[in-house]
Amino acid sequence: MSTVTRVDRGIWEAVLPPIVALCIAAVVGDLLILTFGEAPAAVFSLLVKGTWGNAYGIGQVLYKTTTLTCTGLAFALAARAGLFNVGAEGQLAAGGFGAAVVGLLLPSGVPGIIAVPICVLAAMLTGAGVGAVPGALRARFGASEVIVTIMLNFIVLALLNWLVSAKLHVPETLHTPEIGSGMVPRLADAFAMFRGSAANFTLLFAVLAAAAAWWYLFHTRSGYELRAVGLQPDAAEYGGVRVPRVLLVTMALSGALAGLGGVNFVLGYKGYYEDGFAGGAGFLGIAVALVGRNHPIGILASALLFATLSQGGLAVNAIVPKQLTDILTAVVILAVATAVPEVQKQLRAAAARAANTLRGARTEGVA
């Protein structure tokens, strides 16, 4: 099989699941809408008009897509190495905070062409620092990155809350002062039709990050080693791969990608760091990566799908509950998850463990 054929097949396998999942969600959505006494065609028409039917809706979808792309890439990169990064929420917030602090420290007269890259780099480095902690603990002591990243979320968010509320907040708010340099231009600055939406050119950074992740994973030696460790760490180590180093670097890169997502809110939208701005985007990134089959191209399509459902929920809230789109989101996740071989393997393993536990309990009861 030629290299081109393998690439095309990989991209098709990454993009196809979200499309199939969307079709399944549409069928389930029809049934739910009927229970509310509304016409499915009218509701879905309103959803489309509120998202892709006008420039403001498109802008809002693209804004949400940007953050989800970054957090999805963060989880996917770690997953390719056999790691489960549940810490994107804290890494995302840390990246936004790092960008805000550097933006506050830079003089207001610094040109954007200099200030923006510096702030973006600060966001990625801050996110990488948070991601490197569980990576180092896993590489050095074998600590579970799942537990460490979950606990680190609480620590990072609490620490940032204290720093903002005690040191950097504007009175009677939970956000920092507005930054003087480093703001990313809005799409409306170049395209007037997007006026009023939060969409900004951080979207380009997210797309470039996806392209870079694709190139790194499938066209570099380091990416090959990362995937080898994810498939079989013992065999990779036998082949000369330094597994602890790969684990540490992967978690740091994963954190950097999540940190990049913080730029979207801080530099592209509000112009300051606000406590709680992540709003679950770090956790939703897990679903985005899962639906996108941990492939950068698939993640772009998946993030666009989830962003559309999120914005669409606001559009249809006038005639059906917004929670309808939350249910559709869950249907999409379940539809794809149960079709992913890795997930099927984990489900079978979990079922086997549950059966063994039940069998053991029955044996003890008989004894």
Summarize the structure.
The chain has 367 residues and is mostly helical. Helix content is 76%, strand content 0%.
Would you mind describing this structure in some detail?
By secondary structure, this protein is mainly α. It has helices spanning 3-35, 40-51, 55-80, 88-105, 112-141, 145-168, 202-219, 221-231, 233-238, 243-270, 281-291, 296-315, 323-337, 341-366. It starts with a helix and ends with a helix.
Order of helices and strands: HHHHHHHHHHHHHH
Total count of strands: 0
Report strand %.
Answer: under 5%
Rounded mean pLDDT is 89
User: Main sheet?
Assistant: none
Shape: globular
The rounded distance between the terminal residues' Cα atoms is 58 Å
Describe the secondary structure blueprint for this structure:
Elements: H1 3-35, H2 40-51, H3 55-80, H4 88-105, H5 112-141, H6 145-168, H7 202-219, H8 221-231, H9 233-238, H10 243-270, H11 281-291, H12 296-315, H13 323-337, H14 341-366
Helix pairs in contact: 1-12, 1-13, 2-12, 3-7, 3-10, 3-11, 3-12, 4-5, 4-6, 4-10, 4-11, 5-6, 5-10, 7-8, 7-10, 7-12, 8-10, 11-12, 11-13, 12-13
